[in-house]
Amino acid sequence: xxxTVPIEYYIWLAVALFTIGVMGVLYRRNAxxxxxxxxxxxxxxxxxxxxxxxxxNDPAGQVFVFxxxxxAAAEVAVGLAILILMHRNTKTIDIDVLNRLKW
Amino acid sequence: xxxxxxxxxxxxxxxxAFMVVFSRxxxxxxxxxxxxxxxxxxxxxxxxxxxxxxVHVIVYAGAIMVLFLYVIMLLNLNQESEPHKxxxxxxxxxxxxxxxxxxxxxxxKGTEQMVAQQPADSGIGLVKNLGKVMFTDFLLxxxxxxxxxxxxxxxxxxxxxxxxxxx
Lengths: 103, 167
Description:
The structure holds two protein chains of two kinds.
Chain A: H1 7-27, H2 31-55, H3 60-90
Helix pairs in contact in A: 1-2, 2-3
Chain B: H1 2-22, H2 26-46, H3 50-75, H4 87-107, H5 127-134, H6 139-166
Helix pairs in contact in B: 1-2, 2-3
């Protein structure tokens, strides 16, 4: 049952998801969607780490993924708070408008 | 059987990841991202990481995406208001990410030989096994993570509070 899928397939899938995330960061101007693409990249790395952890029988990789999830939750909370603050001050979340650090 | 399930979940995950990037409405992006996260949880189940699959659904679909939806609702962004970037930038983004994909696949090419044909231990992703590892080898990082979450909570509250104090 386990390990009938070759590990290369998981590598390709994780690379594809990570690359889609990078493309989203470069492509979109909406800051919230840029955030979501960063989440997508984190998840691609998590998936690869779980795959290798499962194929090498090493539980440390899955514990790392658990910690990465906690860090991602903290990052999203603080990041969205900053976004709301920026939207209050500037009335926009277009990252081309938000290119100055002081308004 | 497992391979077919893998193909199906991967296809849905990649397709909805593309839709996250290309849909005009931020609400649709959030919903497609939730589909992607459920597909990744399915991959965790296929990899016998049941605990992580459950935690992934709870944390991402339950907490983080609800936070995104609330922010979009608060900022009233559900209309398709994004102006067009010029076409050269779009083409450059596609080219850059394609090149990055080639580089990453090339860099990860030899790693499948690391995985020798080891006997599969299906109990590795269960709560019992992971909890034992987390509370013996990784006890200090676990406690530091709790401090990090507390700091993030205080930071988020402070950031959203300072504006109302100023008014």
